[in-house]
Amino acid sequence: MFQQRPIGGVFVQPKSVNLNEYRVVDEPFYQASGDEVGVFDSCYRNGLPVLLKGPTGCGKTRFMEYMAWRLGRPLVTVSCHDDLTASDLVGRYLIKGGETTWIDGPLTQAVRSGGICYLDEIVEARKDTMVVIHPLADDRRVLPIEKLGTLIEAPPEFCLAISYNPGYQSVLKDLKQSTRQRFVALEFDYPKPDLEAAIVARESGLDRTTTELLVRFAGMTRNLKGSGLEEGASTRLLVHAAKLIAAGVTPVSACRSAIAQALTDDHEMLTAVNELSSSIF
Amino acid sequence: MPTIAQIEAWLDQILEVEFSFRNTAEAVRQISRLAEQDQHYVISWVRRVASTNVELGYQYALHVHHALVLMERESVEAWALHAMDTYDRSGLRPALQVIWEVDDFIRINRERAIGCVLQEHERVLTGFLRGLSGRKLKIQSAEQIYTDTETLFLPPLLAILPSPEQNFLLYKVMITALWAQTRFGTFRTNLGETLATHPNPQRILALFQCMENLRLEAIIARELPGLYRQLDELRSALGEPPLPEIWEPFRQRVSQRDCSARDVLMQVCVMPESVQPYNAFAYQGVLLLDQVDARITARLEREKALFRIKLKMLEEELREQSGNQSEKRTDGSRFGKREIRPEERPEELQVEILLHDKPLPLPDDIKELITSITLDLGEIPDDYLQPAGPGEYDPALLQQDNALDQDVWQGSYHEEGAFLYQEWDFRRQHYRKDWCAAREKSVEPVYDGFAEQTLEKYSGLVKQLRRTFEAMRDENRLLKRQTQGDSVDLDALVEALADARDGREMTDQLFARQHRSERNIAVLFMVDMSGSTKGWINTAEKESLVLLCEALETLGDRYAIYGFSSISRKRCELYHVKHFCEHYDNEVRARISGIRPHDYTRMGFAIRHLSGVLTEVDARTRVLITLSDGKPDDYDGYRGEYGIEDTRRALIEARRRGIHPYCITIDEQARDYLPQLYGPAAYTLVDEVAALPLKVSDIYRRLTT
Predict the structure, then answer these.
(1) What range does the domain containing B245 cover?
(2) What is the least distance, in Å, from the CA of B5 to any CA of chain A?
(3) This model's pTM is above 0.90
(4) Residue at B412 is within a domain
(5) Which residues of B are less than 8 Å from A276 in CB distance?
(6) Could you read off the pLDDT of A175-221 as tens digits, one per residue?
(7) What pLDDT sits at residue B328?
(8) CB A224 to CB B126 under 8 A?
(9) A87 touches chain B (CB under 8 A)
(10) Do residues B364 and B241 share a domain?
């Protein structure tokens, strides 16, 4: 399934990799709001890496699960954080009983087994970490493992996807041009109100009327983006609130705990958001 | 217990009886009847009030006895502070009014206790209002409840209902009612023309208001059912009479989904004479058509221009992105629109802008503009879709909101556009609210090669500085022999294995780890630009800054430079030399060279303002370094103890915000007051001006290692 080219005379026999536990067995619920499924399909078939852009909680990760299920490939998700090093992705030597053993990182595992590797919130990772994905993300499609002195060529089944949220204002959390220009970008946004209500209803089992009100409330919090809130309520938060309501919590208090408190710690903004929810329900 | 004679002596001294015609006998008589504790209390407060104004203090002394009978001590203090604040804001007469009318103060206080003050809840209410959708509206206090379509005007205090919560709710309902006017097309009618031609315009206007309110309430009931329920409760709490019988059928009619404000106006014109307008409910505002028309006319023109200019910018951006491919299609009217009107909610119009028949992703500012335009016109007219031609619009048209800096100075009491800061009055033992009006300006760059000359003059020192600062740099490096790490430290492993073979204990420090730079410092230099720095002090300051910048560039710390100067509290100025996000380039060098001495040294406002600037920077350690040549000093009484006390307060506030203040001064008397201001270890006195450039970088090095 994969080929290995030794560099500098070093050759390490890879262990067989089994990523069955990373397979998505049941069909995840995903409601397309545009042509994203088709575009991703074509990227996959052409070996192009994909960049998912969009605010938090609008369905990027769910979309990846759905595509992994649809394409029948294991999905390796790495949530990036600011201490994520290149070896965390590629792999490292460990010491076992007086000997060193090489352990593959998640990215290497995905490459070897022809899975889909999804690097969530890529901008959170350190800048030097991002560079290791560059050779994988252009027409070379290889993963050099410096410490083993090998190059792993990615099989056609392998796919690389990364996500990022362009809404952050920080200049530190911007994607480098050299990285972003390797990817096909798919833009995600909160679904249109009707669709969003349908999604929330389906995910939570709450009745349609209440979910529509919830979606309208979400719209209000999104109006506040930039005038007090960093982000409006995401679809994910709506699902949380809807689940609480379905379980018998009153709508106003569900909105307070599941949405308002999640959005901000600013006391006055909290009050304003709560006033909005009590106006709707 | 002090004797009457003693009290008299104190009062005479505080109230400057010797130089005036004041008679303290009455005040002394009253105060002498108080308990001993109260006597001391009153005398100390008379002193504090008199420090603001002697006459105010005298009147306070005369009335405080009465106030103590009526109120708790806390309220009496609030009363005195309110009087002093009033003096600061509006002068002696209104302040005396506060002292004389204790009863009024008590009434207002009681109202405040049950009522809701707009100012206190402004942020919450604005947040609520912004969430509702539509144009971004503002809130302002006024006597009448109305809107001019950009600002909602509300009474400053509501105390109609018995509890603060209910009064807050009343504000909320008022806001929603006014918002609904702008959002659901109350002003998209030809009401003005109808009134002009009608024989009885007043009646039409009144009827229109009644009907329109009913229509908007029906919409609120549909859109915000929760709020409508609260409105119902509020109406019964207010004891509002029910809607007159005769209005009931009209209410039914305007409650239909497709009823618009135009329909309402049409119905009003044919309403039978028997229908009389009902009295508006307490939360319903009035329609001030003049105000609305003025706003709309100004806005329409501005937004049309803005919209077309933004389209042009968008067009250029797209052309750049597509690499000039569509260059050939430069014929006009390429922008189109598609309007989507959901059936159940006709008022929710969505407009998409099309380019070559494909919908465009729009930036937020254009989306906001579209919302605002459709609120006024109900659609985006076709002529709006023509991108603006070059030079078609006067740029001044677009900057209507940001009054120019110079405009602000027309009329010295204008405080618009300035940052207002409080100031500590040590005699009053309280802050003076919004006392200093501070503005940020930029230093005019002077390109005279000053920086190059300085570098040449101190070339030996510069080399040495670079070396020392390079050594301080905390760089990423590989740490060996760690218990945890990314890779195996082979040397350590070999040794450990050998040890194990030898029968010795094996160490667990077998890994190598990348060490990351932890130096995370933001430093702000606050440079004295007062008149006293004229001459060589100014030059020394500038030279120090150049050398410092060199050093800091080597080190990689984030830094900003601001100058400050003032002339009275109304003209406090901060001169920006380098922002945190700016690079140290030629322009910054030229600005350093352009630092000139200006007026006086008011320090409190500068510390307060720059602390704010510093807090916005994301850094672990924040340092505020002042370069100064003397005591805080300004010509309107900001000197001596007053200035020092205010500066001390400002520094305490800064420390509370997690900032480390430090001062470098060349004032020889600094030892008398600086320890008190900055603390014993947070200042340096440079006794020789010429040594300043040599010392500053050195001090910085010591300070941050």
Answers:
(1) 117-290
(2) 54
(3) no
(4) no
(5) 128, 131-132
(6) 778 888 899 999 888 898 889 999 999 999 999 999 999 999 999 99
(7) 46
(8) no
(9) yes
(10) no
Of A100, A252, A272, the CB nearest to B128: A272
A198 in B contact zone (CB under 8 Å): no
Residue B325 confidence (pLDDT) above 70: no
Residue B261: partners with Cβ closer than 8 Å, 6 or more residues away = B184, B185, B186, B187, B188, B189, B212, B215
Residues B656 and B535 in one domain: yes
| Ordered strands of the B138-141 beta sheet | B138-141, B151-154, B146-147
* Residue where a domain stops, chosen among B364, B389, B414: B389
Inform me whether the pLDDT recorded for B272 exceeds 90: no
* Closest chain B CA to residue A233: B131
Sheet holding B350-355, edge to edge: B335-340, B350-355, B358-359
Q: Note whether B533 and B649 are same-domain residues.
A: yes
User: Is residue B67 assigned to a domain?
Assistant: yes
Q: Are residues B216 and B123 in the same domain?
A: yes
Residue A4 confidence (pLDDT): 45
Quickly state the pLDDT bin for A158 (edges 50, 70, 90).
very high
Sign of the CA dihedral with B185 first, then B187, B188, and B190 last: positive
**Whole-angstrom distance, CA of residue B560 vs CA of residue B540:** 18
Helix (H/G/I), strand (E/B), else coil: A75: strand
Of A198 and B351, more confident: A198
Q: Per-residue pLDDT tens for B472-503?
A: 777 677 888 888 888 888 888 888 888 888 88
How far CA A136 is from CA of A53, A89, A161, A210, in Å, comes to 20, 13, 11, 46
Asked if B486 and A95 come within 8 Å (Cβ–Cβ), the reply is no
**Contact call for A223 and B130, based on CB within 8 A:** yes
Could you tell me if residue B675 is inside a domain?
yes
- Tell whether B582 and B607 lie within a shared domain: yes
| Residues B149, B98 within the same domain | no
User: Edge-to-edge, what's the strand order for the sheet holding A150-153?
Assistant: A4-6, A150-153, A142-145
Give the gap in angstroms from C-alpha A101 to the nearest C-alpha of chain B. Answer: 10
3-class DSSP state for residue B81?
A: helix
Best of B118, B122, B124 to mutate (most A CBs within 10 Å, chain A): B124
Is A268 close to B123, i.e. CB distance below 8 A?
Answer: yes
Task: Tell me the per-residue pLDDT of A133-156, one tens digit each, with 9 for 90 and over.
Answer: 899 998 999 999 888 889 999 999
Contacts of A50 (CB under 8 A, 6+ apart): A40, A43, A159, A160, A161, A162, A183, A184, A185, A186
How does pLDDT run across B356-402, given as a tens digit for each residue?
Answer: 777 777 777 788 888 888 888 888 888 888 877 776 766 655 554 44
Q: Does A97 touch chain B (CB under 8 A)?
A: no
The two tokens of residue A162 are 């990364």
Q: Which residue of B has its CA nearest to A266?
A: B124
Co-location of B147 and B247 in the same domain = yes
Write down the ipTM of this complex: 0.76
Asked whether residue B268 is domain-assigned, the answer is yes
- The one-letter amino acid code at A224 reads L
Quick check: A223 and B224 CB within 8 A?
A: no
Number of domains in chain B: 5
Distance of CA B352 to the CA centre of its chain: 35
Contact B130 A227 (CB under 8 A): yes
